[in-house]
Amino acid sequence: xxxxxxxxxxxxVKPTDDEYETIETSRWGNRDVYPIPHDKQTYGVYAYVSYxxxxxxxxxxxxxxxxxxxxxxTASQAMTSITIGMLIASVTAYLNGAPGAKHxxxxxxxxxSAFGMWGSYFCIMLNVFQSFVFYGTQMYFGGQAFVL
Length: 148
Fold this sequence. Notes:
Keywords: Membrane, Transmembrane, Transmembrane helix. It is found in: Membrane. This protein has helices at residues 2-11, 45-53, 59-70, 75-103, 107-147. Helix 3 runs antiparallel to helix 4 (75-103). By secondary structure, it is mainly α. The protein has 2 domains: 38-104, no CATH class; 106-148. 68% of the residues lie in helices and 0% in strands. The protein contains 5 helices and no strands.
């Protein structure tokens, strides 16, 4: 067991000086949702490209073209509709993320500015339900991959 505890000790995240450490956790905030100071921001171009690139590697992204062709679209119509759909999704993602990128706040914190402290729960629940649908879709496609 000595090897396991040594490994766990090496993997342990060391505490850092944090300007929010003295602020107590409440239902309205904790150090995970407050703005990240500039010197603590570690994401670079590689991290962003890697993060967004993984969205194109999921099973549902791989099946879009074949599904559109399966319902009767030609290959050029399918590519055009996918391109238009992705452009609309990209603009929406940019508009949703621009305030967060500028002020370094997450979705839940920004929802409070428009919907108030209690109304932001509605926005968060929309995200939760969207995640359920996405996860269910991915599980379905994963199950189909094992069946085939």
